[in-house]
Every structure is written in C-alpha cells, then in structure tokens.
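Practice record 12: protein with flavin mononucleotide.
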Amino acid sequence: MSGAFDLCGVPLRGPVLNGSGTFDAIAARRTFGDRLLEEFPFDAFVSKTITIEPRQGNPPPRLWESPAGLINSIGLPNKGLSGFLSGDLPQLAELPVPLVVSVMGFSRDELGALVAAVGERDQVAMIELNVSCPNVETGLVMGADPAETAAAVGAVRPLTDKPLIVKLTPSAGDPAVAAAAEGAGADAVSLINTLRGMALDPRTRRPWLGAGTGGLSGPAVRPVALAQVASVAASVSIPVVGMGGIASGRDALDFLDAGAACVAVGTENFRDPAAGRRIARELAAVSRNERGFSAGRTRFSQDRPKSPAKVGKTVK
Ligand SMILES: Cc1cc2nc3c(=O)[nH]c(=O)nc-3n(C[C@H](O)[C@H](O)[C@H](O)COP(=O)(O)O)c2cc1C
C-alpha cells in the first residue's frame, strides 16, 4: 500500500471498492484459495449488509436480468450480528485490504447496537450505514428523509471513533439527505443503491420476483447514478463513494470527474469476478494517457482539476 491515497484517513492503495452485497469474498477464497489474496480485486472490501438478527432473505426467484441491468430481491440474508462476528469477521480480516462493514438497523437502537459492536473490533476500518430500510418506530425510510437521516447518524456517531460512511438510498438524488448526513457527523457518503424495479413472468403475467419488486442495478442505472453523484458531490465537502453500473475504467473516471473520491463496482462483479482489478488498471491507464497522472496514486480532491459539478457550484 502506498499510503498516498486515503478515504476518511484510512490509507488505500487505490480508489476502487466493491458495492456491498456484490462480491462474496469468503466464497471467492474457497474457490480461488490464496490467489484471491495475492490478486485481490478491490482496494477496500465492503461486507454484505448485516442486521442484528439472522435473516433468511426474500422468497425465490430473487434475480431477473433486464437489458443492461439486473433486478434483485435478495432481501439481506445474513447470519446476524453474532454470526457475523464469530463466523465471517475472522475470515474477512485476512483480506489484504481495509474492511468496511455494512450494517442496517430497523430502529436507531438496533443501528446503535450494530455500530457499537462492529466499531470495537480492530479488524474493522470503517462502517457503512445502509439506511435504505423503514424505521419501525416512525415508519419512515431512514435514508429518504433529511431529518430521519440526521437523527440516525447523530444517534450512532458518539458510539464509535471509526469513520462512518452513509449509503444513501436512490431517493437521495435530493442532496439535502447527504447534507443532513454530513451535518450529523458522517465521514463520507456512498451512492447509489439500487432503484426499485419490476419484471413480469412471461408466462403467468404475474411479478417474476418472489418479493414482487426488487432493486435495479448495472449499466442501465449508470446515467442516474452519475447525476446523483454529481449533485451530492456538489453539496457536501466529505468524500463521496460513487457507484451504479460501473463496468470499465472509463465509467469509473466519469464518476471521479463528477466529484466522487472513490468508486465501487457492483453488478459487474457477477459477470467478471476480477472486474475490480481490471477497472483499476483501465482507470490508471485512461488517467495517465489523458490526464498525465495515475489514478489512485494521488488524492483526487486535492490534485485533480475541479469536477464539472464543483465548477458548476462555484459559478452559481
Ligand atoms: C445482488 C445484489 C445485492 C446487493 N446487496 C446489497 C447490500 O447487502 N447492501 C447494500 O448496501 N447494497 C447492496 N446492493 C447494492 C450495491 O451495493 C450497489 O449499490 C448497486 O448495485 C449499484 O451498483 P452497480 O450498478 O454497480 O451494481 C446489492 C446489489 C446487488 C446487485
């Protein structure tokens, strides 16, 4: 690790992360053995979202391929907090990059319990708050409303010194939510999560997915993601992790130019498990050839020309 690049003060060897839930590092280690550690595809690893209690996830079918996209209704199956800490964390701690643990609570207390328990583990570098779920106390989706987001982040902020990344819901195209997260003490924001979508079974004409609807991801969402990343990056001064349909180094550069400090690769990992490394290589090449600097070796916010989004903000 060069240490020349960092996210929230955590040194990273480059700017390419994975999107939560899109790369199973434990299964990949079983398949590829120690080769996975030698050629690990990402510069930081983001875990699948965990909840306090174990979850089975949604009924099948859970996936539908749409043109240039994927609709999933996985439903956050996971071992729960104690299963994660005893079963998965020791294995994820062997990865050669900093670990980000993604957590989701159905109330502020649950979120707080997750943050406190995960935050006290030395193996964990950062915590990502997945705020896409309804708060059972208020009925509001935590991340859909600035006040709810501020209350959730404010409630957990005192519980850990670890950097907190708030993963915004797709409705966070409203930059007020990102600004509320920043105001309540978030160290970074990440976006976009999946967009709600539906597919019909060609024979029965009923919804294909067991849960009825799911989340759309992949290249189909990239222009939406880029617009949201640009809008949020222009509204906050904390780093933005941009994602949504990134499948090449040029796609990644688009997000960085729109104001992201780092990028994350999601759906593309299902097509190509080595996509993260390939995209990092392509990004370095396209940056070097066209800009005269090597992506991931500099801190973008300081060394790169101002993004169109930031320039736009200055002019207004
Ligand atoms: C199968 C699947 C599972 C996902 N699971 C999670 C999850 O557990 N937590 C989360 O915050 N996002 C989850 N996501 C969203 C991704 O992390 C990412 O935000 C989204 O897919 C957009 O990026 P992409 O178009 O590159 O996939 C999931 C996405 C997919 C496709």
